[in-house]
Amino acid sequence: MSSTGWEQRFDRFLEPFLAAWRTKKRRYWAPLYLRGLLLPGERKSIEPLAERVAPGHEQELRHFVSESAWDAAAVEEVLWEKADALLGADDAFLIIDDTALPKKGSESVGVAHQYCGALGKQANCQCLVSVTLANDIVPLPLSLQLYVPMDWAADPERRAKVGIPDNVVFREKWRIAIDEVRRLRKAGVRFGTVLADAGYGHCTEFREALSSEGLLWALGVQSTQQVYPANVKIKMPARIGNQKHPIPSHPVDAASEMIQALGDKGFKKVTWRTTTTGRPMSARFARCRVAIADGKRTGVGCRLPGTEAWLVCEERANGEKKYYLTNHPTDASLRKVVGAIKARWSCEEAQTQTVKSWSASRWSDEFSSWFVDRDIAA
């Protein structure tokens, strides 16, 4: 495809998003800035980017990026409408994840020493809560919300220096994620299952909030996650003095111990999909019904049985084990449960393979063709 043909498709793709902005200058500079981000070139800062797409106009482009008053609502409305038309369905997935941006300095808003997924360790970085809509292996990013650590949120001087609005306060990542889930549902974006890693899966409040929205969820957890057998009962012992604590009929166990009790026969090989090259994606899985230890705390500090769920263990080819909790119903097949769990990784793999295997020009052609052919800009 010629560059002219690509630019025409690109302009068609952008048209409904640009129409959402009423500012003429913004509609002019946005396509140039986006082209600069997509075109080859390692450095995406303003100066080298301007040299590629708007030589001699660095200041105008810098003003567009850093000084314009940004209100994402109008553009989000268009994006979410198009995304739902393409991928939205009751069996679609909403993937919650962290996106980390490594930084060397301390001036970028929200930067802190925290876990950085891009580096796989604690590092100086910004962290954003990302929300992606996915159906089959096709992912569409819908939202990126900056996580502002407490040290930043509670420091008036740092806030003023970088212009953090007064209404931006400290919120845990799971609260940011739930707010985005609710915003998307209110906007009419369709999905039925929420996926996230153990950074979110360990949080009782996050799981309860998803359940209160009537959503299915499949979330990673640590091997130490506390659970009871599903058939656990609560009994009240005779009062001892002024204390009377309920007692579970079974002891609480770590997720790893509960799976280990199933033995090797508890594992089955499951293939959740086949790659475009015909390679089956499979691993061994075991599961059992449990009552999560997320109920009320007793006087002795432990938590009582609460939400009933599937505890799932994935055993990979290298022997590594991963653990998950999901609120799929009791009659859900193992393959269905695994398919939901692995939908998150399938989407990540699709994104990774796209970046690795496609050149920038081919990516531009395929990207624009895929969306335009499905009338995303119609």
TrEMBL record:
Pfam families: DDE_5 (PF13546). InterPro entries: IS701-like, IS701-like_DDE_dom, RNaseH-like_sf. It comes from the Bacteria. Residues 17-278 form the Transposase IS701-like DDE domain. SUPFAM superfamilies: Ribonuclease H-like (SSF53098). PANTHER family: TRANSPOSASE. This is IS701 family transposase.
